[in-house]
Amino acid sequence: MRKAPSEKGTARKTDAPSPREHPEPRQSRQVSGHDRALQIFREAIERDRLHHAWLICGPAGIGKASLAFRLARILLGAEDHASPAGRRVSAGTHGDLLEISRKPDPRKGRLRSEITVADVQPLQKFLHHTATEGGWRVVIVDGVEFLNRFAANALLKVLEEPPPRAVLLLTTATPGALLPTIRSRCRILNLNRLSPELMEALLPDLPPDVLRRAHGSPGRALFLAQDRNGEIAALARQALQGQPLTVENWQKISQIARQADGAELFCDYLSVHLAQQAKEEIRHGALARGARLAQKTAELEKLEQAALGASLDRAQMLREAYGLASD
């Protein structure tokens, strides 16, 4: 059984990289651990069997968007970052590349909870124009699971009638949440988690306990590293141990709710532990207990979505998450 987040362990280094210091996917020069996916894509080009839509699947933070931009660079002749085409991709100004993703919400200081049909509207215009540089047109939809119903239907129309010399690269951490009609029209590229050795090589400044809890996801490791003094992990551990919500913890929750990504970090600690514990219980035959823990994980995800959708205050969401985990 996976232990709850601990206050102990290797001390965090103060110079640990921040997610905001990490290069944007369009600027990433290194796509580590996904050589097989790159090989499959290159072979499809060489054999003139390039599918019009590719669905890149894998856990959050393992480099799906970075891989998508690498594949786009291959098609656009922009693998050399110093070349004119390479610089345009890095700057987000390449005329034959369109990126669709969740947009920032300036009022809340974080990404919106969904990709709307307005976000997808540029797709039709983009694909009905000829390529500005005479080659391929590439569309990247990063986080296709966040498309709302209307946006998903708009994308589906393009997938059903793909224009020539156009490739769509879709990324998702939850392929099961997509419309079956979207999945069926894509070629699937499944990405694996990175090995512990590769994680250590990529992120040598992060403590071993952070790398271990990241489970092969560099993005998640950088995310977890934001909890530098371990306060969020300590509070999550108290919830998982069933400790009551004291006045002191109530105040800590209010502080965490005001931190950038604080609420997401707290819920991440809880959901990972509950999901792992559910798997262990089921594996050992405790089906009823495992089902209850899995239900808690699902309820926790609903709380997070409610907070993202502004129907639930972040501090209130954290208090409910604490109570859910400690019950």
From TrEMBL:
What InterPro entries does the database record attribute to this sequence? DNA_Rep/Repair_Clamp_Loader (IPR050238), P-loop_NTPase (IPR027417)
Disordered, as annotated region: 1-35, 83-108
Q: Which domain of life is it from?
A: Bacteria
Q: Biological process GO terms, please?
A: DNA-templated DNA replication
> Which portions of the chain have biased composition (kind: Basic and acidic residues)?
96-108
Any coiled-coil regions, as ranges = none
Q: Which GO terms describe its cellular component?
A: DNA polymerase III complex
Please list which residues make up the signal peptide.
none
Concerning Pfam families, the annotation shows: DNA_pol3_delta2 (PF13177)
For this entry, the protein name equals DNA polymerase III subunit delta
